[in-house]
Structure formats: structure tokens, C-alpha cells
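Anyone able to model this chain together with S-adenosylmethionine?
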Amino acid sequence: MSDPGEEWQVARRRKGAARKSKSLQVPSTCSQEQLDIGKSGTADQLGSTKDGRLCQQCVCYGLGSFSSCVSARFQLAMLLLLLDAGQVPLKDCSVYDPAFSSGEMAVLRELGLTVLTENEEGKCLATKSTLFYLMHCGKALYNNLLWKNWSVQHLPLMRIIGNSFNGLMDRTVDREFKRDYSYITQAVSVCEERQLPCPSRLIDVFSDTAVITFPTSNLKRLPQSTWAEPPEPQYQHCSDLEIIQRETQS
Ligand SMILES: C[S@@+](CC[C@H](N)C(=O)[O-])C[C@H]1O[C@@H](n2cnc3c(N)ncnc32)[C@H](O)[C@@H]1O
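re: yes, here you go
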């Protein structure tokens, strides 16, 4: 099968064309109110700092194959608008999905984003304020991300735009969720989740999406023992892991 991404071409901006569009243009059938993320105040709603910046860097996992999947294309558009509204330089946004074709990676680089080539399995340490954009990703990706940042120093640096943790929990058998995703289980009680509105025609694209933050004052409610040498997730009992793990060296 030929690589669908290879057929993609980057359309360059015409001379004189406007450099940036501040608002997402949507068809009249769609709620302008809910999608107009370029409006002033949107960055505030997402919890920006006083200088209007959403965060210092962004990491996007699991965007999906946007050359063949409409949802992934919308999600990419949303990411670009968020970076623009939050004043995050494109080069400070790293993207990774093992499903990207070489053509898709070329498109993302041409857009100015930083394409990661290593599968981190979501284990990315936030050393400065970081927006993690994980749209409809596997639970293990969120759980790994939480494990890597499992401290009162690092969790508050993270802001996740992705699946509602409460939603993930509600859709999974309680006993299995607690056994396999212990970091999400603990995070649910101390994170703050704000559900993002989703127009009905974009349910497949943005359903169940929340902005998730970790206020320091909430983290202090967890017992001290939770922070001491948190074990790396193994998932040995997990029959349907939902994420692609890095290849082990033989
Ligand atoms: C359910 S799909 C969601 C795709 C798209 N965001 C959407 O909503 O249609 C999950 C995505 O996570 C990606 N994925 C799996 N393992 C990953 C990993 N280790 N790191 C980053 N992304 C991963 C898959 O390739 C897939 O594109």
C-alpha cells in the first residue's frame, strides 16, 4: 500500500495574504460562539499567565494520521489555533505519533512544529509550564505522563487538553482502572477539570475534551507516601493496551 502522507503537499501562503487569522472560520450551520477560540479571553479561559501566554511549550501526542482522518485534521487545526491564541511559538510545540507517515512529518515540519522521532510512550517530564495536547488518546499515555511528572514540583507545571479523566474512569471497569491506571486514579481526586464545549457536529472530533490542571494546594491532600519512589507503570495485566510501546532491544 502506498503511503497516503506522501501525496500531501504543503500549500504555501500567497504573497500578500494575511499572516494570521485570529478566529477559526466555521460554516454558518455551526456554533460560532463555541468554536471561536481566537477571541480575546480564550487564552484566559484556558488558564493563561498574566502575559497572555498559555504556556512556555507544548507537547502533542496521538494526533493521528491527519492525511486520512478528518478528526485528526480538525484537531491539528485546533492545535495551531491554540498555539496562536496562547502565543506559543510553533517550534516550541513537539508532536509525536507512531502513525505519522513520512509525508505527514514533512508537513508538520513545514508548518514549523518540532517532530519527535522517538517513542517516549508519553513519559515526558515538564521542566517548565507545558501544555500537553492528547486528543482521544489511550489511557496508558495519560498514565505514563502522570507517572513521569508525579511530584508536587512537576504536576502544577502541566496543563492537559485531552480526555476527561472522570470520563475515562466512568467508561472502564472500576477494578481494572484502579489496577492498571493508578496515576489517573489518584489524579482524579486532586486535578481540576474544565469540560470544553463541543458543537454537536464535531462530537467525533472534540467529545469528552477537558482542560486538566493540578493546583498545588490540591496535591497536598494526597498522602506523603504517594510521592516516594512512584513505580513505573508496567501494564502486564492489561489485555488491550491502546498505545504503541517503544520497541525493546533484543
Ligand atoms: C484513538 S487514536 C486518536 C487519533 C486522533 N487523535 C483522533 O481523535 O481521531 C490514538 C492515537 O494515539 C497514537 N499513539 C499510540 N501510541 C502512541 C505513543 N506511544 N505516543 C504517541 N501517540 C501514540 C495512535 O497512533 C493513534 O493515532
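Residues 70-85 form the longest helix (16 residues).
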